[in-house]
Design goal:
- This protein has about 800 residues and is of the alpha+beta class.
- It has six domains: about 60 residues, no CATH class; about 100 residues, Alpha-Beta Plaits (2-Layer Sandwich), CATH 3.30.70; about 130 residues; about 80 residues, Distorted Sandwich (Calcium-transporting ATPase, cytoplasmic transduction domain A); about 150 residues, HAD superfamily/HAD-like (Rossmann fold, 3-Layer(aba) Sandwich); about 110 residues, Calcium-transporting ATPase, cytoplasmic domain N, CATH 3.40.1110.
Length: about 800
C-alpha cells in the first residue's frame, strides 16, 4: 500500500515535469501529444524533432533539452540580424567558396550525448546543411552548408529554435583585428574563488566554535545554553557550505548520474552528504556535536586542491604553447625581396608568396598570379577552385600551379590548421582501441562504492562508531584522476619537448605509435640530403634567355632538384619576368609550363623525351633533363650533399631497427649510401610514388613501420605507414598526409627521438604504479578507520599534483639525458 502511494506520487511528479527540459510545469503548462511542456518554446523544439523523426534524441537521456522559457521562438531573431553583414559574418566563417561555407559556433547549452546526437543530425532537419561536426570539450559545432540555400543568420536561428542558441560577443569582432578569433567566453574563475572564500570562512569559524570540545573541556567552560548555541551556529554555517561551495560536487555528480555514469564527484558528494546528515542527526537529538568541522573541511580542502590543480595545469599549458611551435614557414615579400618567416609572425597586410603545392596559412586577398586552389584539406572534396585577383582565399587551401601573392587579412590560427590536420587521421588511420586507463576509470567509482559498503558492514558488526569515519574516508581518499593524469601530462610534456627539437606531432597518439616502431624507411632526396648541391649542365650551350626560361619554371616548384637548378641559374640572370602559363607538376616525373610562349619541360628523360636515357645507369649524380619547345637540350647533373651527422645517426639506428631506402633517383649513390647506412641496409632506386606506396603497404602489414620523406612525392607512402614523418627544411611544403613534421637539421636526432618515445611508455607505467600504490595505501588506512575524512580531503588533490610533477619531471629529465632540451 505504501509502495503504491509512493509510486503514484512519483508518477504525478513526473507528469508535472517538462518532457523536453525537465523543469517543473506551472498551472499553465502545455499538453501536446500526451506530453507536458513548461513553455511554448520547449513544445516547439519537440515539434521540430518530431517532424524530422529525431525523437530518438530523448532516448539518450531523460529530459536532455535546455529550457526554452523566456525565449521567443519566432521566424526571425533580431539579435542575429548582424550576421547578414559580411563584416561580422567573417568572425564565424572558416571557409567560403564553390557554393558552400564552413561556420563555427560556440554552444554553451551542449552538455550530453543527446546534444551531440541531435547536433550531428542537423542535415536531417535542414537539407541545406551538408555536415555538422561536434567538438564536445570545446562546446563548438562546425557546420558545412550550402550558401545559396541558407544563410549564416538562418543557421543561428535554426540552432536557437532547437534549444542551442550560439554564443556571440563583440569581443569576437574586435579580436579579428588583433591576434586571434575568440569563439567562446573565457572561463570565469570568480565564482570558484568566491566558493573557496565562503568554504574557508565557514570552516575556520566552525573550528573555533568547536575548540572547547577539541580540548575536551565541554561543560567546564560552557554552560548548558552556550554549547547547543555553538552547535547550531556551526550547523547554520554548514548549511551555507552545503548551499554554495559544496554545490559544485553535487551538480557534477548529478550530471554524471543523468548520463548513467558515476564520475569522481559522486563519492565525494556522497561523503559530504553522509557527514552532513549524520551531524544534523546528532545535533538535533543531542547525541553529540557531529562532524561539521570535517564536512566543511572536506569541501574547503577539495576546493583549494582543485584550485591549485587548475593553477598547475595553467602554468604548464603545453597545449597552447605547443601550438606556438607549429613549424611552418611562409615566404613574405618585403621591399621586392623574399624573406622566409614563421607563420606566427604573419600580420595583417603582409604580402605572402605562395608556391605550387604550398598551403595558404591564413585568409587573404589574391594580389597577383593565377590561383587554382585545392580545398580538399578543408572540404574533403578534391576540386580546384579558380580565383581572380581581388578575391578572398581561405586558410587551408593548397595552391596548384604558378606562384601567387596573397595579402593576409587575418592573423594565424594554428589551432585551426591543427584541427584540419587531425581530421585526416580519422579518415585514413585505423581506429585505436580504447585505452585500458579509461576502462579502469569507468569501473573505479563502482568498485569504490563496493569497498565503502563492505567497510560499513564490517564496522557495523565490530564497532559502529567507526562506520562514518571509515566510509567517508574511503569515498574521499581514492581517486582515478591520478591514473588519467599520468598519460595526459606525460604525452603533453613530451610533445612540448619534441616541438622544441623540431618535431611537431599532429596528435599525442603518435608518440605511442612511435614507441612501437620496428622498421624505418627513408627517402633520399630532400630527406637525407641538404638543399645545397653542386650543379653542372651537360648538353648544348644554353642561351641567356633559355636559362631564364628554365630558372623561372624551376622557381615555381618546391622540389629539391628544382630549387637546386634555380639557385644555380639565378646567378647568371639579372631580371626575371614572372610570366608563366599552364604550369603543371607530375609527381615523381617532372614539371612543365609555358614561359613567354616557350614550352619548357624539366624532369626525368622518360618524362621529357618519352624514352629511357641510354646512359642513365652510368651517371654518378642525380639528373634533371631539359627540353625547350620539344627539343632536347641536355641535363643538369646535381651532386647533392648529405646532411652532417647522418652516418652517426645510422650507426645508432641499425643496432635496433631494420632500415630501407626508397629513392626515385638512379643508383649512382648506391656505394656511398651503403657506407653511410650500413651494409645491411635495403636500398631501392628508380622508385615511383606508386612503388613507394606498395613497398610501405607490404611492410606495414608485417611490422610497425616508420616512413620519412619530403612530403611531396611521398604523400601516399607517408599515409600508408604506421607513422609518416615529413622531413623538410623551410617547412613551406606542409603535407596533410603525414603524422609529424620534422625540421631537416634535426633529422640526426632521430635515434634520441625514438628512444624518448619508448621511454614515454615507461614513464606512464611508473606513474600508474605510483597512482595504484597511493590508492591501495589510502584505502588500507581508510577502511581501518584510522584516516580522518579531513586528512583524506587534503591527500586526494595532493596526489594529483604529485602525479603531474612526477610525469613532467621524469619526462623532462629523460629529454635532458637524451639531449632533447635544446632552446627553442
Amino acid at each position: 500500500m505504501i509502495f503504491s502511494i509512493y509510486k503514484t506520487n512519483i508518477e504525478q511528479k513526473k507528469e508535472t515535469n517538462c518532457y523536453h527540459c525537465g523543469d517543473k510545469c506551472t498551472s499553465n503548462n502545455i499538453i501536446f501529444d500526451d506530453k507536458n511542456f513548461c513553455c511554448q518554446g520547449c513544445k516547439s523544439v519537440y515539434t521540430i524533432l518530431q517532424k524530422n523523426n529525431l525523437c530518438q534524441y530523448y532516448q539518450f537521456s531523460d529530459t536532455p533539452g535546455a529550457s526554452q522559457q523566456n525565449k521567443k521562438i519566432t521566424p526571425q531573431y533580431s539579435q542575429f540580424a548582424f550576421l547578414d553583414d559580411s563584416t561580422f559574418e567573417a568572425s564565424f566563417i572558416r571557409f567560403k567558396g564553390d557554393g558552400q561555407a564552413h561556420a563555427v559556433f560556440f554552444l554553451p547549452q551542449m552538455h550530453c550525448s543527446s546534444c551531440i546526437w541531435l547536433l550531428e543530425n542537423l542535415p536531417r532537419i535542414n537539407h541545406s546543411i551538408i555536415k555538422s561536426i561536434i567538438n564536445f570539450p570545446e562546446k563548438q559545432i562546425s557546420i558545412r552548408y550550402k550558401t545559396d540555400e541558407i544563410s549564416l543568420r538562418q543557421l543561428a536561428e535554426l540552432l536557437t529554435n532547437i534549444g542551442y542558441e550560439p554564443y556571440t560577443s563583440f569581443q569576437q569582432f574586435e579580436s579579428n583585428n588583433g591576434n586571434e578569433t575568440i569563439l567562446h567566453p573565457e572561463v570565469n574563475t570568480k565564482q570558484r574563488i568566491y566558493n573557496l572564500g565562503i568554504a574557508g570562512f565557514c570552516f575556520s569559524n566552525i573550528m573555533i566554535l568547536s575548540f572547547p570540545e577539541y580540548l575536551g573541556l565541554g561543560d567546564e567552560v560552557t554552560d548548558n545554553l552556550l554549547m547547543p548555541l555553538f552547535r547550531y551556529i556551526s550547523l547554520f554555517l554548514a548549511c551555507v557550505v552545503m548551499l554554495f561551495p559544496a554545490r559544485t560536487f553535487f551538480s557534477a555528480a548529478w550530471a554524471g548520474l543523468k548520463q548513467k555514469f558515476l564520475n569522481i564527484d559522486a563519492p565525494i558528494a556522497l561523503a559530504i552528504a553522509i557527514t552532513f546528515i549524520r551531524s544534523v542527526y546528532e545535533i538535533s537529538f543531542g547525541v553529540g556535536s557531529g562532524y561539521l568541522d570535517a564536512m566543511s573541511g572536506i569541501v574547503f580542502f577539495m576546493l583549494i586542491g582543485r584550485f591549485f590543480q587548475n593553477k598547475t595545469y595553467h602554468s604548464l599549458s603545453f597545449n597552447s604553447n605547443y601550438k606556438s611551435y607549429f613549424p611552418m614557414a611562409i615566404t613574405l615579400v618585403q621591399k621586392d625581396a623574399e624573406k622566409i618567416v614563421p607563420l606566427s609572425e604573419i600580420k595583417y597586410g603582409d604580402l605572402m608568396r605562395v608556391h605550387d603545392q604550398e598551403i595558404i596559412p591564413v585568409d587573404g586577398l589574391l594580389v597577383a598570379g593565377n590561383a587554382a586552389i585545392d580545398y580538399s584539406f578543408v572540404t574533403g572534396e578534391t576540386q580546384q577552385i579558380v580565383k581572380s585577383v581581388g578575391e578572398l582565399v581561405y586558410a587551408g587551401g593548397r595552391q596548384i600551379g604558378t606562384t601567387i601573392e596573397v595579402m593576409a587579412v587575418k592573423p594565424l590560427d594554428s589551432s585551426y590548421l591543427t584541427e584540419l590536420w587531425n581530421r585526416e587521421v580519422f579518415k585514413h588511420k585505423k581506429p585505436e582501441g580504447k585505452s585500458f586507463v579509461h576502462q579502469i576509470s569507468k569501473y573505479f567509482t563502482v568498485v569504490l562504492f563496493i569497498i565503502a559498503s563492505l567497510s560499513a558492514l564490517y564496522w557495523y558488526l565490530h564497532d559502529s562508531n567507526k562506520i562514518w569515519l571509515s566510509v567517508t574516508a574511503v569515498l574521499i581518499v581514492a581517486c582515478p584522476c591520478t591514473l588519467l593524469l599520468s598519460s595526459t601530462f606525460t604525452y603533453g610534456n613530451m610533445m612540448r619537448l619534441f616541438a622544441k627539437n623540431g618535431l611537431y606531432l599532429r596528435h599525442a597518439s603518435v608518440i605511442e605509435a612511435l614507441s612501437a616502431i620496428k622498421y624505418i624507411v627513408f627517402d633520399k632526396t630532400g630527406t637525407l640530403t641538404q638543399n645545397t648541391a653542386t650543379v653542372m649542365f651537360e648538353g648544348a650551350a644554353l642561351q641567356n634567355t633559355e636559362m631564364q626560361y628554365i630558372a623561372l619554371l624551376a622557381k615555381q616548384s618546391k622540389h629539391v632538384l628544382s630549387k637546386n637548378i634555380y639557385d644555380y641559374l639565378k646567378k647568371n640572370i639579372t631580371e626575371l619576368n614572372d610570366n608563366i602559363e599552364n604550369f603543371k607538376t607530375y609527381t615523381g616525373l617532372g614539371i612543365e609550363g609555358v614561359v613567354q610562349g616557350n614550352y619548357i619541360k624539366i624532369g626525368s628523360y622518360e618524362f621529357v623525351c618519352n624514352g629511357k636515357y641510354p646512359e642513365d645507369g652510368n651517371l654518378l649524380t642525380s639528373v634533371a633533363h631539359i627540353s625547350i619547345n620539344n627539343q632536347y637540350k641536355g641535363y643538369f647533373a646535381i651532386k647533392q650533399n648529405y646532411r652532417i651527422g647522418i652516418k652517426t645517426m645510422f650507426d645508432a639506428l641499425q643496432k635496433q631497427f631494420k632500415i630501407s631506402l626508397l629513392s626515385g633517383d638512379n643508383n649512382a649513390e648506391e656505394e656511398n649510401l651503403k657506407t653511410i647506412m650500413g651494409s645491411n641496409a635495403d636500398l631501392h632506386f628508380y622508385q615511383q610514388p606508386v612503388d613507394k606506396l606498395e613497398f610501405i603497404a607490404n611492410k606495414s602489414s608485417l611490422t610497425s613501420t616508420l616512413m620519412l620523406g619530403d612530403g611531396l612525392n611521398d604523400a601516399g607512402a607517408l599515409k600508408q605507414a604506421q607513422v609518416g614523418i615529413a622531413v623538410t627544411d623551410n617547412i613551406n611544403s606542409f603535407s596533410p598526409a603525414c603524422d609529424a613534421l620534422l625540421k631537416g637539421n634535426y633529422l640526426i636526432k632521430l635515434p634520441q627521438i625514438l628512444k624518448f618515445a619508448q621511454g614515454g611508455k615507461n614513464i606512464i607505467w611508473c606513474s600508474f604504479i605510483v597512482s595504484i600504490l597511493y590508492n591501495v595505501i589510502g584505502l588500507y588506512y581508510a577502511v581501518q578507520g584510522v584516516l580522518t575524512p579531513l586528512i583524506a580531503a587534503i591527500l586526494m588533490p595532493a596526489s594529483s599534483i604529485t602525479i603531474i610533477l612526477i610525469t613532467t619531471g621524469i619526462s623532462s629529465f629523460l629529454g635532458k639525458q637524451l639531449r632533447l632540451t635544446a632552446d627553442k
